[in-house]
Write a structure and sequence with these properties.
2 copies of one chain form a homodimer. By secondary structure, chain A is an alpha/beta fold. Chain A has 2 domains: 138 residues, FAD/NAD(P)-binding domain (3-Layer(bba) Sandwich), CATH 3.50.50; 209 residues, FAD/NAD(P)-binding domain (3-Layer(bba) Sandwich). Chain A is built from 11 helices and 25 strands. In chain A, the strands form 8 sheets. Chain A has a 6-stranded mixed sheet with strand order 5-2-1-9-21-20, covered by helices on one side. In chain A, strands 13-12-11-17 form a 4-stranded parallel sheet. The N and C termini of chain A lie far apart (61 Å). Chains A and B meet through strand 5, helix 4 and helix 11 of A and strand 5, helix 4 and helix 11 of B.
Chain lengths: 433, 433
C-alpha cells in the first residue's frame, strides 16, 4: 500500500491509515508537516483557524505588532499537503477503545494513529477567581484584550482627578518572572517611558509603576544565576521593580496582596502558571499535578503505541533527569517530528525510531529594546548582541515571507522612532471604556 | 491676548477661548490640525482612541490589511500640538445656551467655539431589525467581525454536508452599489477566486456566488454613465453578479428577498445607507431626512456663529446646487479647515473667511486588483492605470510613515502572491464558531 502514489481524498476514505492530530501549535504543526507525502489520511483539528507564534504574543499585548504579523491560517500553511484535511473545531472527548475523537461541533472522527498537541492554559493554582482581574496571554483574543486594558489604563488615568485612583491606574503588576513575565514587564516599561511619554497632558506616563513579582528566589530561574542577575539589573535600569521571593496572596479588582501588603493596581497580568489541556481526562491516563499526561520514552500513553501526547500537554522526563522537559516551542517541535516519524514508519512498515531524545537548542528572552539573554549550545550573549540574536532568530522562525517582512518593518520602525504601531482600543462595547 | 505665546495648560485653564471639537475623523482632525499654534484651549473628544482611514476599512474586512495599518492614535498625531487635549469619551448632549457639552463619561465641558464632526452610521431605512443579519462597515470592530463572518462562512461550508446549506454559506450578498459596496464585492471575489482557492478540500471557494445589489439604475451613480458601465463590466469579469435597479425587500438569517425572490445567503453585507449621528437632536436644529444638520454658507447652525457642523454630519448645499455635498473624506477635510480658519480669525480678532466653497478633488473606487476608477479634475482613468493612481493616492493620504510602509508591503505581497495576510478568526467565543 505504501508504494501506491497518494492522491488527495475528497473525504476521508478509509483507504489509508487515518492519522488525527489535535492542535496546530508548534508540536502539532511540526508533526503534520513531517507527515507530508505519507500514505495516510491526515486530519488536523484546531479550535482556531491560525497557527500562532506564541513567543511574540506579548508584543501584540503591548501594541508593537498586529495579530496578523504572528499568526497564519493553518489551511494556508498546509494547502499543498494533499493528504491532509484541516478542521476548525475543538475536541470534547476521545474514545481509545473505539478509536474515535468526538468534537464540540458534533463530529466523530476515527483514527488509527492519534497525536494530542492541545497545549496548555493559564493556571491560577486553584484560585480561578483571580482570572477575571489578572488575565493571562495565551491567545490572540487574550493579547488584544490585554492591549486594550493597558492602553485604557493610561486613558482613564488622564481623565481621573482622584490622586489615589490615578496612581492605581498607573500601576502594572506582572505575576510570574519566567520568560513571558520578563518580556511583558520590559515591554510595558518601554511603552510607558518612551512610546507614549509625550502623548498625554495631565499624567506623565513615564511615572507608571511596573512591578514584576516572582515567587521563586530569582527571575528566569531556568537560566544560570549570573544571567538571572543580568536580566534583573536590566529590568531595574528600565524602571521595573522586581520582587523576587514574593508571593501573590490575593488579586481583586483594586490590586494585589503581595506578602501581606496590598498594592493598588488596576492592571494585573498573569504570567505565572500553566495547566495542560485536559488530555489526561480524555484519555483516562495518568497526569502530573499540572495536568500533563505522563508519556513513555516513545511519547506514547500507557504503552499504547497508537496514541502520542506531545508539547505542553505531555510530561516527558528524560532518562536520568529529575523533572520533565519544559513547555517550550523547541521541545514541542522535536516531539512532533518524532511522533510523526514513528507513525510514518508504521504506515510504511519500516522500523520506527526509538526513544525520544531532546536536543537542547537554547533559551532566549528579550528585555525591552537593545537587551536580551540568549543561551545557545556553546554561546551565551546578553545586552545588545543578545538582542540582535533574539531578533534574528524570531524572524527566522516566523512562518511566511510576509510575516517576516512585516515584523522586521515594525521592529525597525519601533527601533528608530520608539513608537508602537498597534495602539488600538478596538472594542465598541461601552462597558470596556 | 492673541500675541501672548501659548504654553500648554496642564488642565484647561479658561485663560484662552475654549474650542471643543467632537469627533476626530477626517473633518475633526483637519480642524484641530488647522488650529495648531492658535491661542486657544482645544479639546478633542472621540469615542475611539484612534483616527481611522475609513476608505480602506473594506480591506480589513476582507483580510488584506490589519486594523493597525489604517488607524493611528489620536493622541499620538496631536502629541506636539500643545494647545490640545484629547479625551476618550462620547458626547451625550449639547447645551447651546450654557455653552457646554455633556459626555457619556459624565463630564461637562464648556466651549466658546464648537465643531461637531461626529460622522454617520449605517441606515436601514427604518428596518433596524436587518442590522443583525446585514452588518455594515463603519468601525474597526465592524470590520474585524465581518472578516470573521466571511472567513467562517468558508470554514462552515467546508464542514457542511447538506448541499443547499453549503450553497447558502458560499453566497455573499452586498447591498448598495456605492463605493464601499463595489470595493467589498471586488475584494470578496478576489478572496474567493484566488487567495483561498487552494486551501480547502471539500469546497471550491472559487465557486462562491457574489451578488451586488443596487436599488438605483446603476452602480457608482455619482460617476458618469460610461464609468459606471466600466465598473460593472469589470466586476462581472471577476464573477460578481451585479443586480442594478433591484430592491432588497427583506433580510433574515437565511438570506435576502430581492424583488420578491428569496436568495439563500448566510453572509449579507450592508453598504447601502448612511444616517448622520444625532447632532441635530443635540442641537435642536433642523436636519434633513438622513439626520444631517442643515448648515448655512459658513457651516454654522441656525446662524449661531459659535457652532459648526461638518463632514458627514452636515447637510451643506452649495449655492446653485440641487443637493448637499456628499459624505466623503475630501468634503469633511475642507469643511474642517474652513471652520478652523473662522475660529482662528475670531480668536485672533481678524476678519474671517466667508462662504465655504468645496474644491472638487475627484472620486476614486478600486475594483479588485489591477482595476480602479479614478476621476480627478482634468483626468479620468480606469483599469490598471486607475488602480496605480488609486494605490498611490491612498498610501499618500495615510497618516504616518509606518502605516504607509506597512500598507505598501501588504499590497506588494498581495499583488505578487494573491495572498491576504490577515485571515484571522480571532474570537474565542464558541457561539461564533
Amino acid at each position: 500500500m505504501a508504494e501506491i502514489p497518494h492522491t488527495a481524498p475528497q473525504e476521508p476514505t478509509g483507504g489509508y491509515p487515518r492519522v488525527v492530530i489535535i492542535g496546530a501549535g508548534f508540536g502539532g504543526l511540526a508533526a503534520v508537516q513531517a507527515l507530508a507525502g505519507a500514505a495516510a489520511d491526515i486530519t488536523v483539528i484546531d479550535r482556531h483557524n491560525y497557527h500562532l507564534f506564541q513567543p511574540l504574543l506579548y508584543q501584540v499585548a503591548t501594541a508593537a505588532l498586529s495579530p496578523a504579523d504572528i499568526a497564519w491560517p493553518i489551511r494556508h500553511i498546509l494547502r499543498r499537503q494533499k493528504n491532509t484535511t484541516v478542521l476548525l473545531d475543538a475536541v470534547s472527548a476521545i474514545d481509545r477503545q473505539a478509536g474515535v475523537v468526538t468534537t464540540e461541533g458534533g463530529r466523530t472522527i476515527a483514527w488509527d494513529h492519534l497525536i494530542i498537541a492541545t497545549g496548555a492554559h493559564h493556571s491560577y493554582f486553584g484560585r480561578d477567581d483571580w482570572e477575571k482581574n489578572a488575565p493571562g496571554i495565551k491567545t490572540i483574543a487574550d493579547a488584544t484584550s490585554l492591549r486594550q486594558k493597558i492602553l485604557l489604563a493610561f486613558e482613564r488615568a488622564e481623565a481621573e482627578s482622584r490622586e489615589h485612583e490615578r496612581a492605581a491606574l498607573l500601576t502594572f503588576v506582572i505575576v510570574g518572572g519566567g520568560q513571558t513575565g520578563v518580556e511583558m514587564a520590559g515591554a510595558i516599561a518601554e511603552l510607558a517611558r518612551h512610546s507614549i511619554a509625550e502623548d498625554f497632558r495631565v499624567i506623565a506616563p513615564a511615572s507608571a509603576r511596573i512591578i514584576l513579582v516572582e515567587a521563586g528566589p530569582r527571575i528566569l530561574h531556568t537560566l544560570e544565576e549570573k544571567l538571572s542577575a543580568n536580566a534583573m539589573a536590566t529590568l531595574q535600569k528600565m524602571g521595573v521593580e522586581v520582587m523576587a521571593g514574593s508571593r501573590v496572596e490575593d488579586v481583586d479588582a483594586d490590586g494585589v496582596v503581595i506578602d501581606g501588603k496590598h498594592i493598588a493596581a488596576k492592571t494585573v497580568i498573569w504570567a505565572a502558571g500553566a495547566k495542560a489541556s485536559p488530555a489526561g481526562v480524555w484519555l483516562g491516563a495518568p497526569a502530573d499535578k499540572t495536568g500533563r499526561v505522563i508519556v513513555d520514552a516513545n511519547l506514547n500513553v500507557a504503552g499504547d503505541a497508537r496514541v502520542f501526547v506531545i508539547g505542553d500537554t505531555a510530561a516527558f522526563t528524560p532518562e536520568g533527569a529529575t523533572r520533565p522537559l519544559p513547555g517550550v516551542a523547541a521541545v514541542a517541535k522535536q516531539m512532533g517530528v518524532f511522533a510523526a516519524k514513528r507513525i510514518r514508519a508504521a504506515v510504511e512498515q519500516r522500523k520506527p525510531p526509538e526513544n525520544f531524545k531532546y536536543h537542547d537548542v537554547g533559551t532566549v528572552a528579550a528585555i525591552g529594546r537593545n537587551s536580551a539573554i540568549v543561551v545557545l549550545p556553546g554561546l551565551k550573549a546578553t545586552g545588545f548582541i543578545g538582542w540582535l540574536l533574539w531578533s534574528v532568530s524570531h524572524i527566522f522562525f516566523l512562518i511566511g515571507l510576509r510575516n517576516r517582512a512585516s515584523v522586521m518593518l515594525n521592529w525597525a520602525w519601533n527601533y528608530v522612532t520608539w513608537q508602537r504601531g498597534a495602539r488600538l482600543i478596538t472594542s465598541d462595547k461601552p462597558e470596556d471604556k
